Amino acid sequence: MNILTVLITVPLTLKYLGTERYGLWMTMSSLIVILGFSDLGINNGLLNGISTAHGRENRELARRYISSAAFFLTGVALAIGICFAAAYPWISWQAVFHVSSPQALAEAGPAAAVFVACFLLNIPFGIVGRVQLGYQEGFASNLWASAGSLFGLAGVLLVIRFHGSLKWLVLAMAGAPLLAQLLNGIYVFGVQRRWLLPAWSRVTAEVSKELLHSGFAFFILQLAIAVSYSSDNIVLAQILGPQAVTQYSVSSRLFNIVATVTAVLLGPLWPAYGEALARMDHQWMRRTLLRSVGLSVGISVTMGVILFSFGTRIIHLWVGNKINPSQTLLISLAIWCVLSSLSMALATFFNGASLLSFAAKVAIWASLANITLSIYLTRRIGIPGVVFGSIIAQAFFAIVPYFLYIRRYLAAATPDGVGA
Predict the structure, then answer these.
(1) Residue 124 burial by CB count (10 A; 0-12/13-18/19+): exposed, middle or buried?
(2) Under 8 Å CB-to-CB from 221, ≥6 apart: which residues?
(3) Which of 239, 229, 393, 250 is nearest to 330 (CA)?
(4) Rounded (to 5) percent helix, strand, coil in the chain
(5) Distance between CA 15 and CA 25 in Å, rounded?
(6) What one-character DSSP code corresponds to residue 404?
(7) What gap in Å lies between CA 309 and CA 332, rounded to an integer?
(8) Domain extents for the chain?
(9) One digit per residue, pLDDT tens: the chain, 420 residues?
């Protein structure tokens, strides 16, 4: 449903907004993704906590994890909201988004405010999906996410039909998943697992401290990954302008279908690794990791070759002749989708096995290399430079260290070094 929504909304919104305003929207989306670390990693720490409690069959521990996370994240969202409201009148949106037309300038601030509001509301609501993933019921979370995609598609069609401004388009796309998440929360805490409903009496200092400890590692990891994955649009906007963002983002969204497929397949393994670790089943972890790596690489290579071979034709059929990606850009995106899928398989193992300290260090170095290389290569070769910067950084600063560490970890964890 997510892929279908993207395939339908991209040509509609590109035609409706025009090149500059569409580039503004994509740049704004990248900024919001970078702000995804604002939950301080608590949601991901909660996922690991729930999977551990599930592996130990400890309901009370799960209650304490959820209540502590819910109240902490609500406080974080309120604090960020107050800071943003105070800073809003003083922000130069022209400098932030590098736009020039009067219409884009007029819409930038209000649209950003709507985007931030939806993002902040999603911080505490995000625990619902983490609870379902922790209990290995990701299918339920994905069904609600599919409903959110449909709500968003309906909202976009309504905004275009009644000629709404960019802020209403943002509300349709960012607010619809939030509505689905709210309905999901009502079902989970009101019907399915009422005993998990957050309560102040279940907030404990011990669990809160544990969440902060694991959350901090996830915070560093999320921040570094957000910079790596979401900086491309910002780099292009600042160096080449919003039109370059549009050319790049439409092409990259086509190849992001590969990442979506891989994420659907790998997502359920995160809590499963956590439960297996709680049960000390390292052999299962090793077998599953090898299979997930083979599957993700096989799928991404196949899809990458197809999209590279027919990418230009697909994009012209999809959005028209306004977007003309170079062959260099297409091949760079094809290589990137393979490396990204491989990295996702390895990162899922690290997250589920709570090997966060090493993963955070790797992510920091990879993100610094990514930003530096992307800026340099974009100035040298244009739009494909941001992708080649990501490719080099991911290959040498993330994937190689991941493989070496996992090899040592499994060799030490399994009898007679079988993990090697």
Answers:
(1) buried
(2) 41, 356, 359, 360, 363
(3) 250
(4) 90, 0, 10
(5) 13
(6) H
(7) 12
(8) 2-417
(9) 777 887 787 787 777 777 777 777 777 766 655 565 667 778 777 887 887 787 777 888 888 888 888 888 888 889 888 988 898 888 877 777 766 777 777 777 788 888 888 888 888 888 888 888 888 887 888 888 888 888 888 888 888 888 888 888 888 878 888 888 889 988 888 888 888 888 888 888 888 887 877 777 777 777 777 666 667 877 887 888 777 888 888 888 889 888 888 988 888 888 888 888 878 888 898 999 999 999 999 999 999 999 999 988 988 888 888 788 889 999 999 999 999 899 999 988 988 887 878 888 888 888 889 889 999 999 999 889 999 999 999 899 989 999 899 888 888 766 554 444
Q: What angle do CA 12, 152, 77 make, to 5 degrees?
A: 125
Per the CB < 8 A criterion, the answer to whether 323 and 247 are in contact is yes
Q: How far apart, in Å, do the first and last CA atoms of the chain sit? A: 39
Q: What is the CA radius of gyration of the chain?
A: 21
Contact 286, 414 (CB under 8 A): yes
Please give the structure tokens belonging to residue 160.
Answer: 């275009």
Phi/psi zone of residue 416: left (φ > 0), alpha (ψ -120 to 50 degrees), beta?
Answer: left
Tracing tokens 């990879």 back to the chain, one arrives at 366
Q: Where are the alpha helices (DSSP H) in 35-125?
A: 42-56, 59-87, 93-97, 102-125
Convert 366-387 to b/e letters by CB count within 10 Å (16 or more is b). bbebbbebbbebbeeebbbbbb
Instruction: Give the DSSP letter string of 120-178.
Output: HHHHHHTHHHHHHHHTT-HHHHHHHHHHHHHHHHHHHHHHHHTT--HHHHHHHHHHHHH
Q: Which two tokens stand for residue 226?
A: 């957000």
Tokens of 151: 């709500």
